[in-house]
Amino acid sequence: MPDDGLPTATVVLKPKRARPFFGRHPWVLDSAVLRVEGDPADGDVVELATHDGTFVGRGLWNSASRLRVRLYAFDATTRLDADLWRQRLEAAIALRRSLGLDDRTGACRLVNSEGDDLSGLIVDRYGEHLAVQVTALAMARRLEEICDVLQALVAPAGILLRGAERGLAKLEGLHLADRLVRGTAPAGPVFVHEHGLRFGIDLAEGQKTGFYLDQRDNRQAVARFARGRRVLDMFCYSGGFSVTCATTGGARSVLAVDSSAKATALAKANADLNGAASVTVEKADAFEKLASLAAADERFGLVILDPPKFSRSRATLDDALRAYHRINRAAVDLLEPGGILATCSCSGSVAREDFLQMLAGVAQRAGRPLQLLECRGAAADHPVSVSCLEGEYLKCVIARVA
Q1: Which residues are catalytic?
Q2: pLDDT at 309 (0 to 100)
Q3: Residue 129's closest CA among 196, 203, 200, 179?
Q4: CATH number of the domain located at residue range(s) 212-401 in this protein
Q5: Among 38, 280, 378, 402, whose Cα sits 20 to 30 Å from the Cα of 208?
Q6: Domain edges within the chain
Q7: What whole-number distance in Å separates Cα of residue 110 and Cα of residue 78?
Q8: Average pLDDT for the chain
């Protein structure tokens, strides 16, 4: 593959399809492509042009993906070479430093894909280790040089590669196994500090890259409503919300539920690590547990819902909204009058408006008004480009239920 960062081919857009890319949107779908002039290999640099030959931008090609071109530059002088990747990585790391997130005892997202003009690349730092997730074939082809730059800029003890989600990997033609890329792997859990608490994180097998860093500030926000309340934390994963509500928040008790044995073991360990004796952890299916609690006429002052993705594309949006309605309706039925619902969605295809309309339907069907107290998103180390609002995936709504 050429390493000079110059285009090997030109991708020509259909008429009237260039406007989003003049607005710096980075994703060129196959449906927008009129023809390809040249024969680029997957991962090659290509030029994007309008049907009448006007330059639009430069990106990386993938014939195996519906997302044919990912754009990284919008002027004809920029090379997509090692110098550009270094500049982008330096800028991303400088942002986190300015946010006060460069404490090596903590954790943060160093690179957030499109939010840092590095589409297809995610880098999270956990203490002295980095977890890298590649979601684009072209970035996978540049993994070694990216890791060289990360090693030079961050000097981690080790860099671990985490594979992309199975569906996304298939769409991109990615075949990346989890492995150690640089340095040494941690001998066991990595322990990090977050707002005065300690959490053990499984970098080898944990969900995402190990921990839900995007919920860092939301854990604190939800905990402010926990004092003196009985709390139910559904889909608790490794106990981030549970432990924060029990300790910082001063909850009377917390029931943490997850269907994964590994997750509940982590949650129990994190509760013990922070002396959160009021946390009880239970392995159970979420929908079954919600039904059994309702059947037993249990009531809670705060219910937290942070489920996995219910939708991975707009094609499954209706099914996802029905699933969100079902769990939120069940949660509302478990809340005492004046209770607090903290409900989240990490499905990027579910827009904030869709999510709020779903909650309006829940309120109507339950016959209980919901008052929105806070509508939140991901923490600041997960920046979103205004040119690619699809990156704003996380919704966290805190509401009072009458």
Answers
A1: 346
A2: 82
A3: 203
A4: 3.40.50.150
A5: 280
A6: 9-73, 82-183, 212-401
A7: 23
A8: 94
d(CA 21, CA 387): 9
What residue has token string 């005892």? 105
Q: Which CATH superfamily is domain 82-183 in?
A: RNA methyltransferase domain (HRMD) like (3.30.750.80)
- Alpha-carbon distance 261 to 310, whole Å? 21
Q: Which CATH class is domain 9-73?
A: mainly beta
Which residues are 374's β-sheet partners? 398
**Which residue numbers in the chain have pLDDT < 50?**
1-2
Task: Return the structure tokens found at 271.
Answer: 């509760």
- pTM of the model as a whole: 0.93
Which pLDDT does position 172 carry in this prediction?
81
Spatial separation of the C-alpha atoms in residues 293 and 282, rounded to whole Å = 13
Neighbours of 188 (CB within 10 A): 10
Closest CA to 175 of 131, 130, 209, 141: 141
